[in-house]
Design a protein that fits this description.
single chain; 21 strands; five-stranded mixed sheet; seven-stranded mixed sheet; binds zinc ion; alpha+beta; globular
């Protein structure tokens, strides 16, 4: 996933009794494991519900296990049956525990006879945390309704009853019905030529963790971008998306050259409406992506490199729990940089690495000590909160450090073999470290102390000797920014005509938190940043201009927040408004009008920012 949340999220404290292998799941994989999921679902737009049944194939581990325990959140369970090897059904007793705010409701199914399969008839609720339902008016083309899932981290349980832990992998098949003219896609092999007849079948033959279960349905067109890639998007967006992502095959080939064959067959990208709460989600075979990267010049295509990289780091070798998520995101951010370097050059890759490192340097000191660790004590961190800057930016910085110390060739050899050795498994930080010690440190002594590696993983902060890339263009921007702030360079004299998105991001990121209002006015007069269609620039511009007290940007900032539901691009603007009483009142009014267009996750995050500011 590409998140880059700039927010410090609330900590969750779990009781010690919940500390099984995965504290964010009620599943008991030591007793019984789900090995295959078969879904039979109807997409019901008027009722904003998925309704049907999930059949779980079971591998009973403990001969005395009395029950199957599943994760659910807000599911309406109608019936549970056990199926024997011949397919004969018997009703099973079940109990749904009271809802836990973080984990949902534990579903305990009495099954002392250990049926081969369990079939659960159920429906989702309109407010399911992992689904968003959009009216036609909330889509780009305004013709048909749209729905999509976002299961990571622990939201699959809000639309399928299952063992919702990344440690448990299963294959899946699905039969989904929908209104005519609607296309349904899933995180499986999709057929671009499938008629829009309301009847779709899917097969995911590789074992995946539950957070990679995904579904979307709506007015979706398809445009090929290569021999094994296509973009799926609303018809009016598909052409633009196909142009922005036309390098997809090049990116796949570059990654294969580094880390071995792409294991999944096709690599397609679904461009979602702007309310998608994240940048991208690496759903197997079908990356879900925000339209905010469609800026026309491919400057934000690193998002595709990121999601594609997950086909190795994350989807192939998976973090066994949310505490280990840096194994997905840190490794992926590192691989993303390598793909960018191979296809677009070292200058851009170094710029992106510097942006990530500088942002982390700025944010890490404000985090609790435990959250600054790559492998934190999970008792202090909620599942969604674990997807933080630390997992992405500190994790990738650690790997860049290893590459520098061991040399690129040695490090590449290890990383490629690591992906191969653990393919289609879920592993812990400690299992990764065992592999790294045995196959990198022990075989290449004298390059780096093992204690240093452990310090990266288990200690707070950033090691003092962490290497930084250099960027001549960023250095020049630092000088220009300083001269502009000192008053020796006029805004119109900035050499910004040729700046790419990253260079603007870097210029704006390192302005003072509350710059002088006169400076902001000069910048805007010279470069027309208010109203920018580039949301990466807009988020940074509006945050700084609001902090500077420039009320002239408020209306455009509100338009930006209303249009974009991607949390990373919208939450900082809400936070900037929330810093003053008048801004807070304005943000509350803006939220009240925009709320219905936001994803449940975005709603939750904004409400927490507004509540926190109100209580001050
Ligand atoms: Zn990611």
């Amino acid at each position: 996933m590409r998140v880059i949340p700039a927010l410090a999220l609330g900590a969750l404290v779990l009781p010690l009794s919940a500390l099984a292998a995965d504290p964010h799941s009620y599943a008991q994989p030591g007793q019984v494991r789900v090995t295959h999921l078969d879904l039979e679902l109807a997409v019901d737009f008027p009722h904003k519900a998925l309704e049907g049944q999930a059949t779980l194939t079971l591998d009973w581990k403990n001969p005395k296990a009395p029950s199957l325990v599943l994760d659910t959140r807000d599911l309406k369970i109608a019936k549970v049956e056990g199926l024997d090897a011949a397919g004969r059904a018997t009703a099973l007793k079940f109990a749904l525990a009271p809802r836990d705010k973080e984990l949902g409701s534990k579903l305990t199914i009495q099954a002392p006879r250990h049926p081969a399969k369990v079939r659960i008839a159920y429906a989702t609720v309109p407010a399911a945390s992992g689904l968003q339902w959009l009216t036609p008016a909330q889509t780009a083309d305004k013709k048909l309704p749209f729905m999509f899932s976002q299961s990571e981290s622990i939201h699959a349980r809000s639309w399928v009853p299952l063992q919702d832990s990344p440690a448990i992998r299963f294959t899946y098949s699905a039969h989904v019905t929908a209104p005519k003219d609607v296309r349904v896609v899933m995180s499986a092999l999709n057929d671009a030529r499938h008629p829009l007849d309301g009847d779709f079948r899917f097969d995911q033959p590789h074992p995946i963790p539950s957070y990679l279960l995904a579904i979307a349905a709506g007015d979706i067109a398809v445009k090929e971008t290569g021999p094994r890639s296509a973009v799926y998007a609303e018809p009016s967006v598909a052409g633009k998306a196909a142009h922005e992502f036309e390098d997809t095959e090049k990116l796949i080939e570059a990654t294969e050259k580094l880390y071995g064959p792409y294991a999944w067959g096709r690599y397609d990208i679904l461009v979602l409406p702007p309310s998608f709460p994240y940048g991208g989600m690496e759903n197997p075979n079908m990356t879900f992506a925000t339209p905010t990267v469609l800026v026309g010049d491919k400057s934000l295509v690193s998002l595709v490199s990121h999601e594609l990289a997950h086909s190795w780091s994350g989807n192939l070798v998976t973090a066994a729990s949310w505490r280990d998520i840096w194994l997905n995101e840190g490794f992926t951010t590192y691989v993303q940089g390598r793909i960018t370097e191979a296809v677009y050059g070292k200058v851009l890759a170094d710029e992106e690495a510097l942006l990530s490192a500088r942002a982390l340097q700025k944010s890490i000191g404000q985090m609790p000590a435990n959250s600054q660790k790559l492998a934190p004590d999970p008792r202090g961190v909620g599942a969604d909160d674990s997807l933080s800057d630390v997992a992405y930016d500190k994790g990738s910085w650690f790997l860049r450090t290893l590459e520098q110390r061991f040399g690129r060739e040695t490090f590449d050899t290890w990383l490629k073999a690591y992906f191969h050795r653990h393919a289609f498994t879920s592993i812990t930080t400690e299992q990764m470290l065992d592999d790294m010690k045995a196959n990198l440190f022990d075989t290449h002594p004298g390059k780096m102390d093992w204690a240093q590696a452990k310090a990266w993983v288990y200690q707070s902060g950033i090691p003092a000797d962490a290497p930084l890339p250099t960027s001549a263009r960023f250095d020049a921007i630092d000088k220009e920014r300083a001269a502009f702030l000192a008053g020796t360079l006029d805004a119109s004299e900035l050499d910004a005509k040729g700046w790419n998105t990253q260079e603007w991001m870097y210029f704006l990121d390192r302005l003072p938190d509350a710059p002088p209002l006169s400076k902001m006015r000069q910048l805007d007069a010279a470069w027309h940043l208010t109203g920018t269609p580039n949301a990466e620039i807009g988020m940074r511009w509006y945050s700084h201009a609001i902090a500077a007290g420039d009320k002239a940007v408020w209306e455009d900032a509100r338009e930006h927040m209303t249009r974009i539901g991607r949390m990373y691009l919208t939450l900082p603007v809400y936070k900037a408004f929330a810093a003053t009483p008048e801004g807070l009142a304005y943000a509350k009014a803006a939220y009240a009008r925009a709320k219905d267009g936001y994803h449940p996750m975005t709603q939750g995050a904004i409400e927490s920012i507004l509540a926190k500011a109100s209580s001050k």
